[in-house]
Amino acid sequence: MDGLCKKGRANEALKQWDVMEGHGLEPTDFTFSILLNCLCHASRIAYAIHLLEWSASSKCHAGAVAYNTVMSRLCEMGRWKRVLKLLTDMIKRGVTPNTRAFNIVIRALCSGGKLSIARGVVRNPGVSANVVTYNTLIHYWFHYCRDLHEVWRLISDMAAEKIAPDEVTCTTIVHGLCRDGKYDTATRNY
């Protein structure tokens, strides 16, 4: 199945999956992940979601990585509402979202222009934010709102959480400030 998926032959991989099931073979978590990834790359997202739902009642359990694969593809497609639903389903099924899962959700919300909702997600106590989380928020806050006060609040939150800014953080801020004509602020602070 891995070979078929690597060659982009999703339909044949699905047939192989059916043959395995027909012979009473339970797919491993590894096989499951391979097929999910293949389906997402082939834009067969509805079937990938169906497999996630199927896994809830099988011996093959979808973990955070499997959900992240599907949520990431949905994010690329601009389907932020579906990303949120999958996150909710994931939690209901007892799968603990990792930082990558939250970053995918934040990116989906931000790219959909839902910055306030994304900000609310980050403020949730169970969310483990990292520098990527904040870089995403800062980028989109400059892109959509050009709200310098909120950007400074985000940077302050990073410091409070002991998350150090990286090169991407600084570049994003300098770019946003310069785009808004705030060259003095950019050169003074960075």
UniProtKB/TrEMBL annotation:
UniProt-listed InterPro entries: PPR_P_subfamily (IPR050872), PPR_rpt (IPR002885), TPR-like_helical_dom_sf (IPR011990)
Pfam families referenced in this protein's UniProt entry, alphabetically: PPR_2
Top-level taxon of the source organism: Eukaryota
Keywords linked to the UniProt accession: Repeat, Transit peptide
Positions annotated as PPR repeat: 1-27, 63-97, 130-165
Family of this protein: Belongs to the PPR family. P subfamily.
Protein name per UniProt: Pentatricopeptide repeat-containing protein
